[in-house]
Amino acid sequence: DQQVKQNSPSLSVQEGRISILNCDYTNSMFDYFLWYKKYPAEGPTFLISISSIKDKNEDGRFTVFLNKSAKHLSLHIVPSQPGDSAVYFCAASAKSQGGSEKLVFGKGTKLTVNP
Amino acid sequence: DTGVSQDPRHKITKRGQNVTFRCDPISEHNRLYWYRQTLGQGPEFLTYFQNEAQLEKSRLLSDRFSAERPKGSFSTLEIQRTEQGDSAMYLCASSLYASTEAFFGQGTRLTVV
Fold first, then answer.
1. Which helix (H) or strand (E) is A71 found in, with range?
2. B109 to chain A, minimum CA–CA distance in Å?
């Protein structure tokens, strides 16, 4: 059962426009959410995160919005740049029995920013 | 380079052979994770260490898999009697205690032929 869902496998936007990547989750115990960016043949790179007590977190061109009632979060990138082209993973964590705060990932959305 | 380091980057092995991967976390990070990623999927949690203690293991971690983190520094992941279904990218990540942001290494791509 997919606890974190990214329903759009791919997204294509023009350079300078806004990119909006969406993520839905089902586990109400999740209390921390993260976005990672991944280039081919590399490990995921941490991008931005948000705690469940907030509804927005901003870092430069990247903003994450959290709607707890809808169990939905989104990543906004504005303005989009060709270097942003990558696969973006949404991840969530909850306190587990072992205390690991392990991450549960979605399947990813491939973003292509066209010059 | 003070990031998470994994070795080797690529491994091709014949079915039935044993393989071992190494991960060197960021030096001050006391939490270490192993994940596995297959094509078209996000990374899936395998196991977690806090210092040298292995505190959590996924159901994905069959008896053929074993992980260690002696002295709470580097970690190794061994797969015995490899199967074709073990072909995947094996990712190591580390974080500080009480921090959820995990930093990943570049991964080890395993191909079982």
1. none
2. 8
Tell me how close the Cα of A10 comes to any Cα of chain B, in angstroms.
12
Using the Cβ of A14 and the Cβ atoms of chain B, whether some distance falls under 8 Å is answered with no
Q: Chain B closest CA to A18's CA: distance in Å? A: 24
Checking if the pLDDT of B97 tops 80, the result is no
Cβ neighbours around B25 below 10 Å, total: 27
Contact A40, A52 (CB under 8 A): no
Report CB contact under 8 Å: A103, B102. Answer: yes
Residue A36: exposure state from Cβ atoms within 10 A (0-12, 13-18, ≥19): buried
> What is the C-alpha separation between B58 and A29, in angstroms, rounded?
18
Which chain B residue is nearest to residue A31, measuring alpha carbons? B100
Neighbour count for residue A42 (Cβ, 10 Å): 14
> Cα–Cα distance between A107 and B43 in angstroms, integer?
8
| CA-closest candidate to residue B92, choices B38, B31, B41 | B31
The string of pLDDT tens digits covering residues B19-60 is 999 999 999 899 999 999 999 999 999 999 999 999 999 988
